Amino acid sequence: MIARKYILNGKENFEKVEKEGKILQFPSFGLAYLAREDDKDSKFGFIVSTKVSKDSVQRNRIRRAINEAVRYQMTDIKKGFDIVFLAKQLALRKPTDQLMNETRSALKEAGIATR
């Protein structure tokens, strides 16, 4: 799990990222991100709705897998971004390692991660 200081909190922050930021679509999730005007650490939010699965165990597995992928990349992630991952139903059928690889490539494609 990533440290609490890297977690995006508050409904208004999530809505701001989704409305004002850019959204990229990937097979397992959408990635919404917004560049802030400060140079503080980037913050991350994870949304896995009940539309993805009614089973909380499955929703939490997806959330944890994406969270771990972000944690592994923390040293490569640029500062000053708010980032929200919006999970899709396809994420249920993917193994954790594939979700982690997709997360890494998504962050790189968005220009948020350096490698």
Automatic annotation (TrEMBL):
Q: Name one GO biological process term.
A: tRNA 5'-leader removal
**Coiled-coil regions, chain positions:** none
- Specify one Pfam family: Ribonuclease_P
Keywords from the named record:
Endonuclease, Hydrolase, Nuclease, RNA-binding, tRNA processing
Which leading EC class covers this enzyme?
hydrolase
Single GO molecular function: 3'-tRNA processing endoribonuclease activity
Q: Per the record, GO CC terms? A: ribonuclease P complex
Q: List the catalysed reactions.
A: Endonucleolytic cleavage of RNA, removing 5'-extranucleotides from tRNA precursor
**InterPro entries listed in its UniProt record:** Ribosomal_Su5_D2-typ_SF, Ribsml_uS5_D2-typ_fold_subgr, RNase_P
Give the EC number(s) under which this enzyme is classified. 3.1.26.5
PANTHER family in the record: RIBONUCLEASE P PROTEIN COMPONENT
Family assignment from sequence similarity:
Belongs to the RnpA family.
> Could you describe the subunit structure of this protein?
Consists of a catalytic RNA component (M1 or rnpB) and a protein subunit.
> Which NCBIfam families has this protein been placed in?
rnpA
Instruction: Tell me, in a sentence or two, what this protein's role is.
Output: RNaseP catalyzes the removal of the 5'-leader sequence from pre-tRNA to produce the mature 5'-terminus. It can also cleave other RNA substrates such as 4.5S RNA. The protein component plays an auxiliary but essential role in vivo by binding to the 5'-leader sequence and broadening the substrate specificity of the ribozyme.
Please identify the protein, giving its name as recorded. Ribonuclease P protein component
Query: Which gene does this sequence derive from?
Result: rnpA
